[in-house]
Every structure is written in structure tokens, then in C-alpha cells.
Design a protein that fits this description.
Length: 131
């Protein structure tokens, strides 16, 4: 139960609004606060799940690159914009993934595998068009 307290500072004074949380936490709040622990437990129970989700992320990147390539290739007007978006996305993910000295977390690992699938699909499309 959340209660809002409002304090008036008098004439011309500031208004202070403060949220006071009660003894119970909401269901959505408890789900969101325990989500990182739940994901860690999900991947620790079976080691093959991490490999499966990396493959799913890579295949999703492959599919996304094919959609981008086919859509913008048919239109023929925004090829440069789509290419710049893919290169910029790839550079941002690479910088975020390899910047830290520690092992990157699950989110960055899956994003990196998505990027690998994206680059792989664009490279295979380039070889298909070049032959």
C-alpha cells in the first residue's frame, strides 16, 4: 500500500511530495525486483540453456538482417541509411561488450550474439550479390 504525503511550505514555500511505502510490496514490484535472480537461476539449472539462447539470439539477428536487406533492397532509396544503422549498431554493441575488464552480463552476451548473426547474414548477402 502506497501513501502520498504532501507538505506545504507555507506562503510561497515549496511543495514537498513524498511516497511512503507500506508493509506490502506489489506483485509487479516483486516480480521486477526478483527478475535478475530468476534469470540467473534459470540459466544455472541447465547449462545447455545458455547455448540455446545464444543460438536463438544469433538466428534472430540473421533473420533481422535478411529483413533489412530485402526491405531496403527492394525500395532502393534508403540503402545507405540501413547500412549506416547496421554499422552503428554493431559498433555500439562491440564497444559496450568489450569495454569492461570483467565478464559481460547476460544482456550484453545475448546482444553480442544478435550482432554476430546480423553481421553474418549481411556478409552472406554480400557474397550472394557479388557472385
Amino acid at each position: 500500500c502506497e501513501v502520498m504525503e504532501v507538505e506545504w511550505g507555507g506562503r510561497g514555500g515549496a511543495v514537498t511530495v513524498r511516497a511512503v511505502t507500506g508493509p506490502r510490496e506489489t506483485r509487479l514490484g516483486s516480480i521486477l525486483t526478483t527478475l535478475p535472480q530468476r534469470l540467473d537461476l534459470y540459466f544455472k539449472v541447465r547449462r545447455g540453456r545458455r547455448f540455446l539462447w545464444k543460438a536463438i539470439a544469433a538466428f534472430t539477428g540473421f533473420y533481422t538482417a535478411n529483413v533489412i536487406s530485402l526491405t531496403f533492397g527492394v525500395l532502393g532509396i534508403n540503402d545507405v541509411v540501413a547500412g549506416a544503422f547496421c554499422v552503428g549498431f554493431s559498433e555500439l554493441v562491440t564497444r559496450a561488450y568489450y569495454r569492461k575488464a570483467t565478464k559481460p552480463g547476460l544482456y550484453f552476451t545475448m546482444l553480442n550474439w544478435f550482432k554476430i548473426g546480423l553481421i553474418y547474414a549481411l556478409t552472406t548477402d554480400a557474397f550472394k550479390l557479388g557472385s
